[in-house]
Specification:
Layout: E1 2-10, E2 19-26, E3 29-36, H1 44-61, H2 69-89, E4 98-99, E5 101-107, E6 110-116, E7 120-125, E8 128-132, H3 138-144, H4 150-153, E9 166-167, E10 176-177, E11 181-182, E12 188-192, H5 194-197, H6 202-209, H7 214-229, E13 236-245, H8 255-262, H9 269-284
Antiparallel strand pairs: 1-13, 2-3, 3-5, 4-9, 5-6, 6-10, 6-11, 7-8, 7-12, 12-13
Helix pairs in contact: 1-2, 8-9
């Protein structure tokens, strides 16, 4: 498997950057990690760094390929949760820091992801956002129930209220974990903090992230998110992987989708997006 990784993290109009990102690599296996330390509390950046350090230690110690990715991701985030609590209690005076968390494991041409909080993972195919994680937030709950519109989410007074996080309290957070998703050449998996996704439209992110070098695209997206929210811009961070080529495993079932992705620039963009999404849902209906 050949791939390219990009990273970007900007301070915004904040005194401290409480976001942390990492891309860990071993034996053609990749682990992407992002944590957004909770603002308004002491030690958010500490919590996010403990998350990164814990995931790195677990990943380095794991036997590859990981036999049960869903169990591994869940247990790793639980370990990070208690590590954050312990780190906070070791301070004088003790503090209760917290962080969001998104992990993405890529091995054997497949991906699994897990998250807690409102940082997101997106899967882009042919610039189309065919999947994103659902935020663990009060506003997301309202939106999923149909009680508020998509447009109302960004201005809701409780938009920053999360229902789950790593750290903060001793209760073990429920981790949302995906099933295995087969990857295709050209796919981009992006993890990002709310500082990036909140000001930008998903299709806008997709069009930029598929245009040119992945790191340049992330830098541009982070800059645009910062400019749109100035002078109240948040920390803005993202880490992404673009799959350049894969072994010819399972290609027969995906040729139709890949052909459409490769011809995307030649087709009507709206029609192409609809076609790609419909075929992708058929392919992954049992996986996501």
């Amino acid at each position: 498997m050949q791939y390219v990784i990009g990273k970007s993290s900007r301070l915004g109009n904040r005194a401290i950057n409480q976001d942390r990102i990492a891309a860990l690599e071993r034996d053609n296996t990749v682990m992407l990690v992002l944590g957004d330390g909770l603002g308004g509390r002491v030690g958010g950046e500490v919590a996010a760094q403990v998350l990164i350090d814990t995931v790195a230690a677990e990943f380095q110690a794991a036997t590859l390929p990981i036999k049960d990715p869903k169990k591994f991701l869940t247990s790793t985030l639980h370990r990070a949760h208690f590590a954050v609590i312990d780190e906070g209690q070791s301070k004088v005076p003790p503090v209760n820091p917290g962080t969001t968390a998104v992990l993405c494991l890529i091995q054997q041409c497949q991906a699994w992801w897990a998250h807690v909080g409102d940082s997101r993972l997106y899967l882009f195919r042919g610039s189309v956002p065919i999947y994103r994680t659902k935020d663990h937030s009060y506003v997301e709950k309202l939106y999923q129930k149909g009680e508020i519109s998509h447009d109302k989410r960004a201005s809701h007074p409780l938009r920053n209220y999360m229902t789950r996080c790593i750290g903060l309290s001793e209760g073990v957070p429920e981790v949302t974990v995906s099933n295995a998703v087969v990857l295709h050449a050209g796919d981009v998996l992006m993890l990002c903090s709310d500082g990036l996704w909140e000001p930008l439209e998903e299709m806008e992110i997709g069009s930029k992230i598929m245009d040119g070098r992945i790191e340049d695209a992330l830098d541009l997206l982070a800059q645009q998110a910062e400019e749109k929210t100035y002078p109240n811009s948040d920390n803005t961070s993202a880490v992404a992987i673009q799959i350049m080529s894969l072994q010819l495993v399972g290609r027969a079932i995906s040729d139709g989708i890949e052909k459409q992705v490769n011809q995307a620039s030649k087709l009507d963009p709206v029609k192409n997006a609809v076609d790609v999404i419909e075929q992708t849902f058929k392919l992954y209906k049992d996986e996501m």
